[in-house]
Amino acid sequence: MTRRFDHAGLQILEDDECLKLLSSVPIGRLVFTLGGLPAVRLVNFFVDGQTVIFATADGDKYRAAERGDVVAFEVDEVDPERHLGWTVTAAGHLSVVDPDEAAIIEHTRPIRPWAPNQDRNLIRLAIEVLEGRRLLAWGQRPHVAEGDQR
Fold first, then answer.
1. 79 located within any domain
2. What stretches in the chain show pLDDT beneath 50?
3. Residue 65 placed within a domain
4. Coil, strand or helix at 81
5. pLDDT tens digits, one per residue of 43-68
6. N or C: which end of the chain has fewer CB within 10 A?
7. Residue 118: which domain range?
């Protein structure tokens, strides 16, 4: 397969690679709207097919799910010493997982929130847009001749 690169020289990742990377880290950032402004929260999660599942208390994230807000979710891994890394962003509508389905999910794939939530609810991001970029080692990056435009 031919590698594709964006205007900045970052490798554009295919959806299957994005899902694999999304599943490879324990913590991500959920971006939602709070009072008309963007809010970002660190969350632990798991990937279930084309969805991302989070556990949350009855708070801002849960209310965003009740409303069906459009949100973004980002994970990454960066090696600042070697100048390597990747990022994956998923976007879509957030929803509340039905309590009966939540019980099944928690039985088969227990999610352990880091915060000591008393009242736990599961919420789901249905992935509608998935994007990923990778910063490759210098020798693998595309080189542009002087004067060339991308």
1. yes
2. 145-150
3. yes
4. coil
5. 999 999 999 999 988 899 999 999 99
6. N
7. 4-135
